[in-house]
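Entry for the shared binder. Reason: the reviewer on the internal report wants the predicted structure included alongside the sequence.
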Amino acid sequence: MLRTLLLALLLGSASACQLATSQPPMSPVPVAGFVTDLPAFERFIDSRPTAEAFRAAYPDVQLVMPGDITTKEFRSNNSRYYAAFDAEGRITGGRFM
């Protein structure tokens, strides 16, 4: 009886772990203002987000797409990000200007 109970608990916890890992990753909480936490921003970019995901996560940062025309005024507050994209349309890197 005890072995059956332990086996049931073990299988139940394994199923719960499998369900937890098979869920899609949650979207990040939007960051208000400009980018101040550069390591967190770099981890976000390393996840290869789409332009829509970038805008959802950093709504106050201007995302400059290839071909967009912008002015070249100096910004030191990380408020405009010139993104580089791969063939799938995901952001692979870029720079603040």
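Summary line for the report: The radius of gyration is 21 Å.
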